[in-house]
Design brief:
The protein has 168 residues and is an alpha+beta fold. It has three helices and ten strands; from the N terminus they run βββββββαβββαα. It has one domain.
């Protein structure tokens, strides 16, 4: 990495003009690689099932960056009830899915940039158009992540995320 381009895209390794505007978790917190060998478990880019009893969807927590007009996004996993997961699955390719009411879920991704755990925060999963990840809205609490989603963050905060996540 050069001083001119200190950040590189994780997907294509192209230099970025600034810190990344998104980070994601490859799996929900409960996933273990050995589950991939089980017939009752599955992990794709969009959904996860663990032991036929735990159901997750991959979505985005979007946060406005107030001083740049951009949007920062956390790629997170949310657990759903089995009926809600089945309903979402049944409508996955249906354009009418955007008319679905939000699904309740529990955040199942630990975001290490926050001092308090992000696991099991209450969420609402908002289905988007076919081909787009669901949006995840946190219930309005005083957790720093929920506050940031409501109020937005600054470009300096985005740089803080990069410092923690990319440099350790």
């Amino acid at each position: 990495m050069s001083a001119e381009h200190p950040h590189v895209c994780a997907c294509c390794t192209e230099p970025l003009d600034g810190p990344p505007l998104s980070y994601g978790a490859p799996a929900p917190v409960g996933w273990k690689p050995r589950y991939a060998r089980r017939r009752d478990s599955e992990l794709t880019a969009d959904v996860c099932v663990i032991k036929g009893r735990h159901f997750y969807v991959h979505g985005l927590i979007e946060i406005p960056v107030r001083d740049s007009g951009e949007t920062f996004a956390w790629g997170v996993w949310v657990s759903l009830s089995e009926p809600n997961f089945a309903r979402m699955h049944d409508l996955w390719e249906d354009p009418a899915r955007v008319q679905e009411p939000p699904y309740f879920g529990w955040l199942s991704t630990e975001l290490p940039v926050y001092p308090d755990t992000t696991l099991l925060l209450k969420t609402h999963v908002l289905t988007q158009a076919v081909g787009r990840r669901p949006l995840i809205e946190l219930e309005p609490t005083d957790h720093p992540l929920a506050v940031e989603q409501r109020e937005g963050i600054t470009a300096d905060r985005v740089r803080e995320f990069a410092d923690v996540l990319l440099r350790g």
